[in-house]
TrEMBL record, chains A, B:
Domain of life: Bacteria
Full protein name: PadR family transcriptional regulator
Any Pfam family matching the protein: PadR
Boundaries of every Transcription regulator PadR N-terminal domain copy: 6-89
DNA sequence: TCGCGATGTATCGCGCCGATACATCGTTAC
DNA sequence: GTAACGATGTATCGGCGCGATACATCGCGA
């Protein structure tokens, strides 16, 4: 899962570890916390031995003025290989049930620009189904076991239900959009500091179910 | 983190592994996926050697009619010990920065009924601060780097921003409520299938995304 | 010039997951 | 009647990824 993310970034341009981590943090910020070095470096080594990436040494242009006092440890720049690019495409197209999981879905989504439309649709729909199931789970708990749970647990369930419901609607918009032919998600110009530029314009109409909500707003 | 959850459940009543897992799934369903047995059983053993829990054997009342043909492996019922209860209280009150993380926050929240008001407030406020920072991060990316990211990455950022914003509002309501003295979260009539039954006249749906995963949340 | 924060590489222990194996029980299907 | 199946139940194993930690360089302001 990190493999896909790293390969994807290196596909854009060569980079060293630190930079890789920073870019991953912003690119996947909505999905997972910053990736740990304890994961990053071992993964880089694994990718390297597998032949997907190589070191593109960085002996700087500067004269050899600093003799390796303490075995000079410079930054290591990695670049993707031809096999790595193939591997990346393979991983991108590999749409198993794991690809619908929170983290994996996010990573796949982050590289949608480089993914075929049909794959994109398959992933979005799989994810939607998964979140729908989650949502039904919450509904059942709230309907059936409400009196057996304490107030805070119930609040957590409602919170989860609402979040799941919103994600389903979000996915539905994205799916409709993909089908309509326009490739990238639409959206008004940004830069707005307003908290929720969200859903406004076309949005709404797309709820599949009788729609639990919408009593609000 | 599992320690707290397991201790908390066993605090309510003795239970065997399978049941423990089921209850955890519903109680923490909004926070993290179902806990794996690969985590559960080792953790149980750890808690046992630490003395927080003990086996409350389950040799059923039935006569010894089934001689251990294949070393009869019955269900193992665990119960919390006195030390375990102390430990549970300690863990509950331990409010470090880790307690504001997605998963840990959820577990703490799930046991708020057994937590002091001031601790509850401290946790809710810490969590709010954390999510606010997250939110600011998204805003900055969207404001500063919008033109350097592809459409899908941007969409992910907006989604994240919106989710964070909603969670902050949710937390704010909970905090206000705690301060107002009413201990348990308020809420319209139960049994409702409606996802977001109103709170007050302000008529705003509470919500937020748990986040990654969490793994994921 | 001294410290400090950002940049940068790397390792170690361990919590937790997903897959897998194995065993029992009740219900449904033939 | 019995075979199949899904739910219940305990348990292990390989491996991914995290958090803490160590170490080193560089630029900047006090």
């Amino acid at each position: 899962m990190l493999d896909l993310a790293i390969l994807g970034l290196l596909h854009e341009s060569p980079m060293h570890g630190y930079e890789l981590r920073k870019q991953l943090s912003t690119k996947l910020g909505a999905i997972r916390a910053a990736i740990s070095y304890g994961s990053l470096y071992p993964t880089l080594r694994r990718l390297q031995t597998a032949g997907w990436i190589t070191e593109a040494g960085e002996t700087p242009a500067g004269d050899a003025d600093v003799p390796p006092l303490t075995s000079r440890r410079g930054r290591v720049v990695y670049k993707i290989t031809a096999e790595g690019k193939e591997r990346f495409q393979d991983l991108l197209a590999q749409v198993g049930p794991e690809a619908y999981e929170d983290a994996a879905f996010g990573v796949h989504f982050a590289f949608f620009s480089r993914t075929d439309v049909d794959i994109r649709l398959r992933i979005l729909e799989g994810r939607r189904r998964k979140v729908e199931e989650r949502r039904e789970g919450f509904r059942e708990v709230l309907a059936r076991a409400a009196e057996r749970l304490d107030a805070y647990t119930l609040e957590l369930q409602r919170h989860g239900l609402d979040a799941a419901d919103r994600e389903v609607r979000w996915l539905e918009e994205l799916i409709a959009n993909e089908r309509s032919g326009r490739t990238p998600p639409p959206r008004g110009a940004e830069g707005e500091l307003r908290p929720s530029p969200r859903t406004t314009d076309s949005a709404r109409p797309l709820t599949a179910r009788p729609g639990p909500d919408d009593s609000a707003e």
